[in-house]
Design brief:
Rossmann fold, seven-stranded mixed sheet, binds S-adenosyl-L-homocysteine, single chain
């Protein structure tokens, strides 16, 4: 049985990581506060306990990764999360990003295509703490038509194109943060849906994600 303990040492390392994210240009204090509250080491295998607060991506199961803290902070900051925002996340993975959004008071709907990773969400340690976080097994390219429309969409895998169905499930005035694949890397885009349904794109830094794949696996 995995045991969980958030020691003074973990808390100290976490605080240092938040200072590092500030130094790297993260300014949204709500993002830093949420990430500062969440024990990232709980989302990793216990073998990573000592290094969980390094600003690095780490492997989780099924060849996937938990995103680098800087990447999580950057995407969350671009999303401009407000309490009660209805947010769709594509790529549940370790559940870390989804937990950050839930900690900020959003209503989070997160989809994972890998059955084994989805099954792990059933024993998620903070399940009772975040009734505003809901898990779905499915293909993110399809979104969640039953729960649409969303205020925000966040994609946490390298998208080959802007998924049209996800634009369709965004409210007018809603926003999507998407790492769009350009071959070597992904360009972070923020897409805003106008009242008339047309979209506007803003382009930010490059990042590196695992690929967004179509269809479910498992
Ligand atoms: N947000 C995650 C990042 C995980 S990596 C975290 O905080 O840990 C990206 C995840 O996206 C992987 O788990 C991968 O299986 C998943 N994924 C890739 N394509 C997908 C798709 N079409 N639909 C849903 N999930 C997808």
């Amino acid at each position: 049985m995995r045991t969980y303990e958030d020691t003074y040492q973990h808390k100290g390392l976490r605080k240092k990581l938040m200072d590092l994210l500030r130094d790297k240009g993260i300014t949204d204090e709500n993002v830093l506060q949420a990430m500062g509250n969440i024990p990232r080491h709980y989302f990793l295998d216990s073998a990573f306990d000592k290094i969980a607060y390094e600003d690095r991506a780490f492997p989780i199961n099924e060849g996937q990764t938990i995103s680098q803290p800087y990447t999580v902070a950057y995407q969350t900051q671009l999303l401009q999360v407000k309490p009660n925002d209805k947010i769709l996340e594509i790529g549940t993975g370790s559940i870390y990003q989804a937990t950050v959004l839930a900690e900020m008071g959003a209503k989070v709907f997160t989809i994972e295509r890998q059955k084994k990773l989805f099954d792990k969400t059933k024993t998620f340690i903070f399940k009772n703490q975040y009734p505003n976080l809901k898990f779905f097994y499915g293909d993110g390219f399809e979104g969640l038509p039953t729960y649409a429309p969303f205020d925000k969409v966040i994609i946490t895998a390298a998208a080959p194109m802007i998924p049209p169905k996800l634009i369709g499930q965004l409210k007018p005035g809603g926003r999507m943060i998407i790492p769009l694949d350009e071959g070597e890397h992904q360009r972070m885009l923020r897409i805003t849906k106008n009242e008339d349904g047309s979209i506007q794109e803003e382009s930010f830094q490059n990042f590196s994600f695992v690929p967004m794949l179509s269809g479910r696996n498992g």
